Every structure is written in C-alpha cells, then in structure tokens.
Amino acid sequence: MAHHCIVFILSFWAVSCSLALAFQITPHTPHQTCRCQELQMMMQSSPQTTTSTIKNNDHNNNRRSFLTTCASLSLTLIVSPKNPALAESDSMPIATFALRRAGALPPSITNLPPRKNGIYVRFGEQLLYSNDGRRTPGKDVFVTFDFPADWLQLDRIMGGIQYVDQRNGDKLYVFKVAMPEGVEQLKDVPKDYFGDAIFNSAGDLVRTGNTVEEYKVLSSQMMGKKDQAETMDDSNNNNNNNNKDPPRRRFKVKYTTVTGNNFAVERKGLVDAYEVEGMIYMLMTGSNAVLFDKKGIERDTVEYIVDSFRVQPTYGV
Q1: Which residues does 289 contact at the CB level (< 8 Å), separation at least 6?
Q2: β-strand pairing of 141-148 with 152-153
Q3: Which of 84, 229, 284, 294 could form a disulfide with 271 if both were Cys (CB 3.0 to 4.6 A apart)?
Q4: pTM higher than 0.85, yes or no?
Q5: What does the alpha-carbon distance between residue 162 and residue 153 come to, in Å, rounded to a whole number?
Q6: What is the DSSP letter of 280?
C-alpha cells in the first residue's frame, strides 16, 4: 500500500515537471537570463527572421523535453518490479476454491462424539477437478475433515468451502492449484509456490475480501502415516481403502491482513496439501498470530483440523 502511494506521488511530480516544461512555467536561471539578453541583441539586428527562428527552436526544445520526460516516466512505471500491473503475471500460480460437487446445496455433515476440546462434526464430500462445475471421472476427489460444530459456513453460494469461528476469527479454507509445469512429485514443488498461489491477488482468498499485505511460508515437511494424528476412522471414508494414500505435505505460513479500519493484523496458519492427478488440494487455517503462538486451545483446534484432512481419488464414482 505504501509502495502504491510512493509511485502515485512520483508519477504526479514527473507529470507536473513535464507540463511545466511544456508550457514554459519554469523559473529563469542565470544561464537563461544571459541567453535572453543574447536573443534580444539578435532580435534588434534581424527582428523578423530571428523571432521566427527563436520561436521554432523554443517550441521544438519544449516539445522534445516533454516527450523525453513522458517516455522516461512511462518506462520507469512499466519496468519497475513493484508495478501492481505486473505484480500478478500470467505465470504466477493462482489458488481457487475447490468446488463442491453439490454446489450451493447444504454441505454433507456428520456428527461426531464429544471430545475434550468440544463438539466436532465431519465434512465429507466430493470435490471437482474442473473449475466449470463438470465432473471428471478418475480425477475428482473425496475430501473429509473435522471441525468445531459451531463454526459458521461462509459464501456457500460460491460452491467453495470456508468456515469461521465467530468468537476469535479463526478460519479454514479448502483450495486447489495445479502442479507447476515440469514438476511431477509434491515433495519437489518449491514451498514458495504454495504461498504465491494462496495469496495471489487474483486468487479466491483475496478475491473474497481478505486484503493481504505480505506473506511468507515459514516451514515445510512431507507427511507420512506415522506423522498423521489418529483423528479419523478411515473405515468411514466412501473410497476404496486399498488405494495408496496420495502424497501429503504440510506448511506453516504467516501473513499480514489489513482491516477495514486500515489496521495491519499478523496471522499465522497451517496448510495441509495433497496431490492427486496433477492437482494440489489444500486445507488452510488462519489464526491471530498471538493466539497461534501461545499454543492454547486455539492452536490445538487448528492442528486437529489439519490433522483430520483426508483426500482420496473417487475412481469414477
């Protein structure tokens, strides 16, 4: 935001200087004063010819100066690496909501027995590989995760998945992004690729009202079965349990959001990612950084949510 202000101020200053040169409103310097005296002597010796020549030369010099300044300004704005117009290149990854097969219908929720941290429910639905609402047999997936029963669903009409804890603002999202070209395994994807995709200004996280000022992927690790918490009864999955689990990777992220009152708030979160048929499915949590670092009940809750996240291919179901 500060960068945008600086660019605007510099642009305004440069254009003002250009206009000043074009309309000859700059103050006279001693050099210009001497030049004027020479011109007056020339005018006295040959009034008509000299006057015409001087006007043409001044006009050409002013025009040349104006065009040069404008060209320099345009080049500066275009080439600048912080230019907002180039901040989101076509080559940048963009994470979108993983669309539910059920669309805007109420989600499929299963009640779970009470646990020490409260009452939880299980989300379990098919998600679409495509972005246009069509099924893609063999590529669509079945997703399950557990979360507190009192969390509120947001923007159901969009067909995506996001919930919020109305008490402290903790959130969860389910995104997807294609694997980068030339990379075949989830473990080989650069960790910054995930941050760039999730926090891309063209992505669904920002597009749905989250103003992100800066972000960073703090850590990354591949997850095996021994790292997965026993949060789910895998026999409840509506999939063929003989299938090999898809690759899984976990990240810790931090990012700064800007509120409606223009206050910057630091947040931290966990991202669990699975790769299926060239598509990465991610469940991300977002929490106030102070509460996240305290490792209290809020941290326990988001860790339980990401631990419970499962993604399985549907295999034509």
Answers
A1: 254, 266, 267, 268
A2: unpaired
A3: 284
A4: no
A5: 6
A6: E
- Asked if residues 198 and 204 have their Cβ atoms less than 8 Å apart, the reply is no
Q: Which of 86-90, 103-107, 109-113, 312-316 has the highest mean pLDDT?
A: 109-113
The tokens describing 259, both together, are 């509120």
CA angle, 125 as apex, 286 and 301 as ends, to 5°?
30
Surface-to-core class of residue 187, CB atoms within 10 Å of its CB (0-12 exposed, 13-18 middle, 19+ buried):
exposed
Helix (H) or strand (E) holding 76: helix 47-79
Question: Would you state the pLDDT for residue 242?
Answer: 46
Rounded to an integer, what distance in angstroms lies between the CA atom of residue 175 and that of residue 160? 8
pLDDT value of residue 278: 95
Residues 6+ apart with CB under 8 A from 170: 164, 285, 286, 287, 288, 298, 301, 302
